[in-house]
Design brief:
seven-stranded antiparallel beta sheet; single chain; 14 strands
Length: 254
């Protein structure tokens, strides 16, 4: 009987200890978002979130952000009201970390994505003073990635050097995967999409790609006449007014 009582007491102490530990943890929401668009979620491979102590280099947390891109109306359409939460909606992608802090610390928050498109991955870093027990919930610490996801769809294989006109088809999306359409929330007419031939860092030829009639698709042609082997076909997308750029590069032209 005494052993049973002891076990109950020990179990009780363990519960109390676990509750005390939980109360000392500082909870922080972290969100990686696309500049001028929505949250980077599962549809584009999610984003990596790292929390680091810059004083020691120690990584305190590393997790994958998964989930939805958030509420379009709240994030993009409705004018932002100071102090209003726009990202913290049901199903919206985020990472919540619980950190053991014994004193105020400057921490480094790092976001990388979209992980489903390695050539388009960007990184954002933010340093903040964090106080023990002062949770950061709601929208949380927001890390904003600039850029576009650009995919070269055609030609599917490197064309022959010196050949005639080649059809070029590219897909251009926001970093969260949001679509470009003419006059849409993400206006295809704002984005300049160019097909360029590069040789040892020099632009040999450049041609504009135009909206191809379907969301995100841009089409045009470029001639390879006189273009030497080893050149590369590169598609670049730019919206300098909104500070977004993206690129996709082919294998060397044979």
């Amino acid at each position: 009987m005494r052993s049973t009582v002891c076990c109950a007491v020990v179990a009780g102490l363990l519960v109390v200890s676990q509750l005390a530990d939980a109360q000392t943890k500082t909870r922080i929401n972290v969100r990686v978002v696309s500049h001028d668009a929505k949250i980077i979620g599962s549809g584009v491979g999610g984003a990596r979130v790292i929390v680091r102590d810059p004083a020691t280099g120690r990584i305190l947390a590393e997790e994958l952000q998964e989930g939805g891109t958030g509420d379009t109306q709240a994030i993009v359409v409705t004018p932002v009201t100071r102090g209003k939460s726009i990202y913290a909606t049901p199903g919206a992608a985020a990472v919540t970390v619980a950190l053991d802090l014994d004193r105020p610390k400057v921490l480094e928050f790092i976001g990388e994505g979209p992980l489903g498109y390695g050539h388009a991955v960007q990184r954002a870093v933010k340093r903040m003073l964090i106080l023990p027990g002062e949770d950061i919930l709601g929208d949380g610490v927001v890390l904003e990635l600039h850029g576009f996801i650009v995919e070269l769809l055609e030609p599917a294989a490197p064309p022959a050097a010196g050949s005639g006109p080649v059809e070029v088809l590219a897909r251009v999306r926001m970093m969260c995967g949001c679509p470009h359409t003419p006059g849409g929330l993400w206006d295809a007419d704002r984005v300049q999409v160019m097909a360029r031939l590069y040789r040892e860092g020099e632009v040999l030829l450049s041609r504009r790609l135009r909206y191809a009639g379907e969301p995100n698709l841009f089409r045009g042609s470029i001639s390879l006449a006189g273009v030497p082997g080893g050149s590369r076909l590169v598609v670049v997308a730019s919206d300098p007014d909104r500070v977004n750029f993206g690129m996709s590069t082919s294998h060397p032209i044979q």
